[in-house]
Amino acid sequence: MASFQVSIVVPLYNEQESFPILIQRLYDLFATQQNKSIEVVLVDDGSKDATPQLIQALALSDTRFQGVFLSRNHGHQTALTAGLAHAQGTEAVLTMDGDLQDSPEMFPQFYALLQEGYDVIYAIRQNRKETWTKRLAYYLFYRILRQISYIEIPLDSGDFALMSRRIVDILNQMPEESRYLRGMRSWVGFRQIGIPCERAERQAGDSKYSFRQLFNLAYDGIFNFSELPVKFVTRLGFVTVLVSLVFLLGVLIKKFFFKEVIEGYPSLLLAIILFSGIQLLSLGVIGEYVLRIFFQTKNRPLFITKHHIKNGQYIHENKP
Ligand code: UDP
Ligand code: MG
User: Fold this and answer.
1) Per-residue pLDDT at 269
2) What does the domain layout of the chain look like in residue ranges?
3) C-alpha of residue 250 to centroid of ligand 1, in Å
4) Which residue of 28, 150, 195, 234 is surrounded by the most CB atoms within 10 Å?
5) pLDDT tens digits, 33-62
6) 6-209+302-315: CATH topology
7) Which residues surround ligand 1 with Cβ inside 6 Å?
8) Global pTM value
């Protein structure tokens, strides 16, 4: 059985238009890297177009390609997780998007740094060729996340990265259900380095991320790597309680020493609204974390594989 030094993991969701160009670019890479044995793990994330058929035909005819077919659309991060779990590369694994926004041609440069002793070589996106609204959203998100997260997540780094075998082994062991891989990768540590890369335009088709999915990814990034929301609400609650105690003291002093009447409804109403607001907010934030505990404790498999093609033949997984 062939053993591979390097794996390239590519998640694909409805990428039939980009697929031929992707494979061509990968073949070109193979041609320039003949001294290394490279495999490609193509993960079909429940595509509804011809992507699975394309992967199947390729993986059955060329043993350098593995086809991993998920049971349904599980999302980009999960597809990457599945790919990492199947990657056999003994030295390193490259993760890249299937729409060729990440250039496989960067591989030699990444690999050179791996040999210098780096464990993670990730792309820092230079100029995104996207709409200004999306660019602004990304810009703000990464900067906010950097301010509030408890680990250092590099600015503008995406999932395009070369990782050493030991990093991939650790990621594969990390059981968390809501996966924000670029944060998890950063959390693992060792020597990591960012390389500026142009982010090309999507080869074909539309972004497979809906605004909601993108928002959820940002959400996971913030709630999985920051305690600030909870801390903030706790502090806010603390301060408000202090303020109300001072207020109460003032009222008592007025009443007993100056025999004045307490203020009427407006202040009362204000206090009620203020405190219910704070309570709701706190509950929401606590709920956010409880939700995460809930999902994590279910201990579900991170992905479900329908079929798997390896070494040019079908391997059936998850069969009763
Ligand atoms: N993708 C996936 N599952 C999804 C959404 C996207 O596997 O549910 C893949 C997609 O085919 C592509 C990569 O993830 O290879 C990045 O997706 P996309 O280009 O849509 O994201 P964007 O570049 O817009 O952030
Ligand atoms: Mg893309």
Assistant:
1) 65
2) 6-209+302-315, 228-297
3) 59
4) 195
5) 988 999 999 999 999 999 999 999 999 999
6) Spore Coat Polysaccharide Biosynthesis Protein SpsA; Chain A (3.90.550)
7) 11-13, 15, 45, 73, 75-76, 79, 97-99, 101, 202, 207-209
8) 0.74
